[in-house]
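Q: What structure does this chain adopt?
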Amino acid sequence: MTIDPRFPEFWPIPATDYETEALAFCQNWLRGQSTFILHTSGSTGTPKPISLTRDQMKASALLTARTLGLMPGDRALVCLNIRYVAGVMMLVRGMEVGMVMTIVEPSGNPLAAFSSTSTSFDFTALVPLQLQTILETTPDRLLILNRMKAILVGGAATSPGLEQLCQQIEAPVYATYGMTETVSHIALRRLNGAGKSAFFTALDGVELGIDERGCLHITSAATNFECVQTNDVVELLTDRQPIQFRLVGRADTVINSGGVKIQPEQIEQISLETLVALNPETTLPRLFVSGLPDQRLGQKIVLVVERELISEEQFMFIQHNVREQFGNYAVPKEMIAVPTFIETPTGKIDRNATIAQIR
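A:
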């Protein structure tokens, strides 16, 4: 379904329940609805409803448009779930900017149904798995990606393997940082090209700081100028505009092994970087690091891999590289394979539920 918010009288009749839901939101936006109820993704706890005002959503949408140079008449592909903030904010950006929106139900490869030669979009937002699937299974769709002004990638961390794949894309690709409470992203990190960076840069007008745990707090027009406290541990590189930061991990995932506190996200990053270095051409497995009960250590570090175990040699390289950077207590003591990771409704790995299966 394709709609132009500048000409609602020509909108098509929706063909599916999903299209009906998307069109209903757009119509309510045009009518001036002032408050919307969205749900958090549930990646770090039980999904909960959050009330957002029209002004918050509009401020976020226009800031993104200004940052990326989006203009009326630009063509946007909306392929994220509109029942959550990332998808619904694509609709808001389209409505506020006046972009022509092609709305498709979320799938693993949202470009599979489009011709690589006759399709052209200016802007889209994807989850990492969607972008990786496009590049690995339909390489000819790279032509569609190359024609875009900007591509956003969010909802989960981007792996070193995906970042390597992104280097073939000519259009700017940005990892996003944000959440429902901040009305989508408040910072971007360039993944490819000359502007590639290891750090997130806050958007204009976004104020950041850290609490005593080193966790980020955020204040912006999109938060109604209220301070939103996160559980994300960050390293602030500067407190002056433009504010940059490195995402370290989450305070609520810290593992205490032998009295040493370990951030699992850092071990995951080293694990993936090691696998990329060993075989750049191989598709990386999905994995995460967790702590399992241990009588001696309290918690022992384990590497959880989806489907098949990586080779013993690869695991030994990972252990060596982790030991070199973080010491013995951070080294994964065991490797565990599960058939399939349990996911949240937005496609993120539900670590707690997956670990519960193992136990």
